[in-house]
Amino acid sequence: MRFGLLGPLLVEGAAGTVVPLTSRKGRLLLGALLLRANETAPTHGLLDALWGDAVPPTARASLQNHVARLRGLFGPAEQDRIRTTASGYLIRVEPGELDTEEFRRLAEDARSARLARDWESVSRAAAAALRLWRGRLLEDLPTLAETEPADPFQHALETSRLQLRSWRAAAELRLGRHHDLIPELASWAAEHPLAEELQRDLMTALLRDGRRADALEVFTRLRLRLSEELGVDPGAAVQKVYLQALTEEPPAAITDSPGIPAAAVSAPPRTSHNPALTPDPARAPTTAASGATGAVPPARCQLPSEARAFTGREAEVERLLACARHAADGEETGWAVVAAVDGMAGVGKSALAVHVAQRVRGDFPDGQLFLDLRGWTPNATPMTTAEALDALLRSLDVPPQTIPKDPAERARRLRDRLAGTRTLIVLDNAVGSAQIRPLLPATSRCLVLVTSRKRLTGLDDSLAVPLRVLSEDESLTLLRRVAGPDRVPEDQPEARELAALCGFVPLALRIAAAQLRRRRSLRLTDLVDRLRDEHHRLPRFDQLDGTDREAEPGTQRRTQREAEREDRGLSAVFATSFTALPATEQRLLTLLAGIPGADVDVAAAAALLGADTVLTEQLLDSLLDQNLLTQHVPGRYGFHDLIRLYCRAPGHWDADEYRTALDRLLAHYERDAEQAAARLRRSPRAATATAGKPDERGEEAALAWMRTERENLLAFARFALAGGRLPRRRASGIALALALAPLLHQEGPLPDAVALLRQAAEAARAGGDRLGRAECLTELGRIHMQRGEFTEAQRAHTDALELYRAQGERLGEAGAIYESGTVHLFTGHYATALPLLERSLELFGEMGSELGQANALFQLGRAYRLTGDLAKGGASGARALRLYVAMGKRWGEGHVLCDLARVHQLGGDLRAAVELGERGLAAFQAIDNQLGAATACQALGRIHHDLGELDAAAELFGRALRLFRATAAEQAIARSLWDLGRVSLSAGAPERAADLNEQALRIFQASGSRNGEANVRHDLGRALHALGRTSEAAELLAQARELFRDLGDPHGEAEVLNSTGALRLATEGAEASLACHKEALVLARRVRSPLEEARALEGLGRAHAALGETARSRTELREALVLYRRIGAALAAEKLLQHL
């Protein structure tokens, strides 16, 4: 058979006869299947393709009927073409049967021939591919063609078609067949009036055919069209042919596109969703003149403003622009286009990169990212690979909670995110090649500009752009542009001396010129006189460079004399700039230079200075105007590293004043962080602890502030905790660590949280702060539990309980008992957990803590549910829900609603369970709580699994797993793996189910989670049963039943008994099976679980059928069917109905 998508949908039989497809739904179905040929097309996607937004309740049944009709049209010999899979349908297509696949193969042949410079083969393959084109993709099915995955596929095909036309034209011209090519080329050029390569080739063919006037007319039309639509002139390649036409020179031989080596040309890649060709969605060849700008501003533009009066660097700018054109207009090569700018500090590396980036931003419409890698930032460690990847992924709108933990996974995620895009990335202030390599995209459509003080020799195939100081003339030009021509007269000899004293370094030149512009009374000669005094010069430039460590291969260190000469120029500028400042600005600058963290806002700077925010903002803006501060984000102020170093030099500040100012800033951060934490905290604080007033702006604003200040708060907390014998500073560090705990608990990374809280707990112990240590241990225990480190969690809560009791702190005591009970609940020690949770509820009630009571009621509801008492579980959860709603705690609502959904699920009311689960998810989403949303997805996935909606369940479980992995929440990860294993087993994939359950089992065993281990052993046994490994399956099921019995979980035991009954029916006979299902039936009815009751009845019916007791069997099976239908377990009901 043959299938056609390039035009109206076409199906041909083995004899070449057209197979009639009169039903529109049938055509839509076949088109949707062929778009994912040889891959599963998910059921939900097929439903959308056939019915759009109006999917009827009977859609799944109708879909099955349409599939059956389609199979019938193919005939008896081809009915197995369409196969039913666990999550949808798959159509099998053999090589050569699908036109888009043939198009891809021929495009690859043309590419290979082009690399070999076999122009005859290029022309032949390209022509064959182009003949397959009967029209737009699925031309007769526009509703399908406009949806995923067809729409981007169509765009990619059009791009590849244009590329093939260009290749064929170039090949024919090389072969001297210009005369016969002209009609075809003219048609193509008319169809693509802005495709300069086609227009150039048409002009060349006409010139070779002696039609000079026609060639000039083509150029005129192109120039007018480009001018009117894009505001640009034709590119250099077209201009060259135009000049040949004017001078009547013979046209030169056709060459490859400028700047693109022939070996770099690659065939368009395939997409992950379609076996047919999906070319890279690049622009058509040279659609505008090189370097053209003026595109619509992209959604993500992080580029800083360009430096005013950018001067010089013509050669370097041209090299970088050529590199940018290569990325924007070149062909896909599979590796990033990288330009690395290196040079000394202050030489203008960042200014050059930003200047070029601003010029070419229109060529990279998918975003322009800027990232400071802190490679040479004083008193700050360079960004790690993981941190840099995290920052880039966040810039690309990847939610923080979904970012993988492993740096290699983050790098893969970044490459995936950038694939198929035209994105410009500026990586500023890099420490070395190793820091850069993982950040590079795997596509030559992206441009990466890197700046570093060191030559990045380890970046293979990158364009190295070494940056030297400005020439004397360029330096004078820059001085005059910034200061004003009247302030730096051309004929004044001191101007050249000033440039020399500045070392011809752009940063120094700018600061000197700013002084002349701002202080009209300062004469050029006076400034030069001051710069001759070396008393306040910066340390040697090697010291400024971070002592330069080891010189990289192929580089040479500067001599001491050279370093001292350069340092004199810079230090003089910094000194005169600083001393020219008013005293208040000097004071603010030096205080800012000494604080931890990368930047500050106005409020923090005001606290440091001890002034009001209005005055502080004026001072900050003044320093910003003089290039002494930087601002990459509105409202936040940072330092250039050179100026920070200068301001930290001895003699610039008073140590006592600095300590006082730092204490003010610490108090500011401590107060604001505690106010924000009061909104985010999930448990009541000890009554005698220092507690802040909740942030009046609400939880959303508190979370936003905490996220913005996160890095500064972490830096200050670590700084303060390292304060040694300074009690006040140490206390601030402890307070900041406790304030950060809710954010770190919610968003991670959890390992960082553990390290910080351990440091805080140790500081509290060293300082004799028993209550502070107890609080740190409580928060540390919560983090340990979230990580699945139950032994460490229990130890922390036990130690905290002793400290609270010794202090007579009853609210803290209640909290420690509650946390201990929760750990026991998670590890499956239900008998121990229940009295602890009940005691904590009693204590919270005595202390009047509604939040504590709500938390205890929620966990008690879970405990009652897990021990089979669904009625008490539901009642306890309902009480907790009322309290959370009254307090406005949406996160609490979300958790309780998800657990109540589980109660209804076990009780057989699956539709009510879905409604509760969706309400829980909405509550979490309303407050941007991604971990909570993941928990809700997990709960909803389990309900959809019981409903037989496996696609929806798998999607929800996969989403939950991604979110949990981002925060390294090991227990939640294990539960998600188990959930996915259960779906895989239901979908008929026991091997994958076994693998997922084995992964989960290792995590549960390592953490001591008996409940998790019981569930996984149960499902692993079921998977091995399906794989025929019955002895191992029997052993695992026996272990699971024993664990559930020890846990006091009758529902879990009933599940295992039903699974064991099914296994014994296959291995030991009907009598052994009956015993298991009878026992399961008793337990299921005791705990009121209609789903397990139905499974037990089904098992009894199958066993009685095996014994020949047909009437009894049919009665039991019908009872099971009624129960399945009543609770909405559609998949189970369908399977049983087929059996009946």
Q: Which key terms come to mind for this protein?
A:
1140 residues, mainly alpha, Arc Repressor Mutant, subunit A, Serine Threonine Protein Phosphatase 5, Tetratricopeptide repeat, Rossmann fold, five-stranded parallel β-sheet, three-stranded antiparallel β-sheet, 4% strand, flat
Q: Which helices and strands occur, and which strands form pairs?
A:
Layout: E1 2-4, E2 10-12, H1 24-35, E3 41-42, H2 43-51, H3 59-74, E4 82-84, E5 88-91, H4 99-115, H5 119-131, H6 142-145, H7 150-174, H8 178-191, H9 196-208, H10 212-230, H11 236-247, H12 314-329, E6 337-342, H13 349-360, E7 368-372, H14 385-395, H15 407-418, E8 424-430, H16 433-436, E9 447-452, E10 463-466, H17 472-483, H18 493-501, H19 506-518, H20 524-531, H21 541-544, H22 560-579, H23 583-593, E11 599-601, H24 602-609, H25 613-625, E12 636-638, H26 641-648, H27 655-680, H28 699-721, H29 727-747, H30 750-766, H31 770-786, H32 790-807, H33 810-826, H34 830-847, H35 850-866, H36 870-887, H37 890-906, H38 910-926, H39 930-946, H40 950-966, H41 970-986, H42 990-1007, H43 1010-1026, H44 1030-1047, H45 1050-1067, H46 1070-1086, H47 1090-1106, H48 1110-1127, H49 1130-1139
Parallel strand pairs: 6-9, 6-10, 7-8, 8-9
Antiparallel strand pairs: 1-2, 3-5, 4-5, 11-12
